[in-house]
Amino acid sequence: MSCLGIEVFVRLERYGFYPRGGGIIHAHINPVERVRPFQGLTTETLLATGVPRKMYLTTVVANLPSSIAPRMLKRALACLDEYVEIEPEEEIFTKGGPGCMFGVKVPTEPVPTFLFALGEKGKPAEAVADEVVDQVRTFARTQPLGVDEHSADQLLLPLALADGSSQFRVSAISSHLLTNAAVIQIFLNRQISCDGDKGESGQVTVS
Prior knowledge:
This protein is of the alpha+beta class. It is built from four helices and nine strands. Strands 4-3-5-6 form a four-stranded mixed sheet, with helices on one face. Strands 7-9-8 form a three-stranded antiparallel sheet, covered by helices on one side. The chain has a two-stranded antiparallel ribbon with strand order 1-2. Strand 3, helix 1 and strand 4 (about 85-95) form a beta-alpha-beta unit.
């Protein structure tokens, strides 16, 4: 958001997981006179040089057995051993949930990429880790790199309010991205195009 001229300060107080929910997030968003367009992630510029060799692994477990966290970490570490540096961390909560999350932060520029998966009843901890490992490998194979599929559809609304056209690469064109683009164009006089096939990498233009 800072690339767009928007200052956002967020503090997570409590995790909430589907279906119970109950998460609490405090956000402070400063007023802004204009939202800047974004041209930072085209094929010739940022995120085009390859995946950083250092990654950060995060496990979150709320109101579930604490043994789940090390199981997710162990599985992911065994599968991601081709990367030079991996920094794991665990977060165990007795409030909120029940639920768990496993995520991998890749320190790409200008913004980090966060790939994650959520646990669910009957889903082994190792399966949650495997889901994220698959995302990391798919992301790493996408050249040139782009915004991850989780973040791409969330970028559309602020870019649709920006003062000018925007363009960025996306690692995978998701149904969320296509749906959000269709909904935004109903309410705003902006043209949003996704150049590429669903499930594949592509380029998004907001004009």
